[in-house]
Specification:
With 129 residues, this protein is mostly beta strands. It has one domain (4-128). The chain has one helix and 13 strands, in the order αβββββββββββββ. The chain is globular and about 30 Å long. The two termini are 20 Å apart.
């Protein structure tokens, strides 16, 4: 299976953003993100309202949940919920430490590549980490 770099050819769009320092980062607008769960399995997630829809990489039927459990940069295990009113995620580490709100979600894709995702309407906007 492949993450964004190798196999996500069916992206809705590609944008280029230039940071204040002049660096160029490619942003992709996608309907779902390929993420790795805390146990290392590969899934895809879309988001409708405040419900994540999770589909396994093997194409089997998925499920909906208010929570996404994912591997963040460096391999840490986190979970997040989405608040559609404030348009923020609430992140909590699996260790049980105190969580925090944020507008982004840092995750690793199926290839181990680092990505930052944010919401734009009903789409994900992802930028390589």
């Amino acid at each position: 299976m492949y993450g964004f770099r190798a196999g996500m050819g069916a992206v809705a769009g590609l944008m280029v953003a230039i940071s204040a320092g002049g660096a160029v980062a490619q942003q992709r607008v996608v309907a779902e993100i390929p993420y790795v769960t805390c146990d290392g399995s590969q899934w895809r997630a879309s988001l409708s309202g405040e419900q994540f829809h999770h589909r396994p990489a093997n194409g089997d039927a998925g499920h909906s949940d208010r929570i996404i459990r994912y591997r963040t940069w460096g391999g840490g295990c986190w979970q997040a919920t989405w608040n559609s009113s404030s348009r923020t995620f609430f992140h909590t580490p699996a260790s049980g430490a105190e969580g925090h709100p944020d507008t982004i979600l840092n995750f690793e894709d199926w290839d181990g590549a680092r990505w930052t995702a944010r919401r734009d309407g009903s789409d994900w906007v992802v930028t390589p980490g």
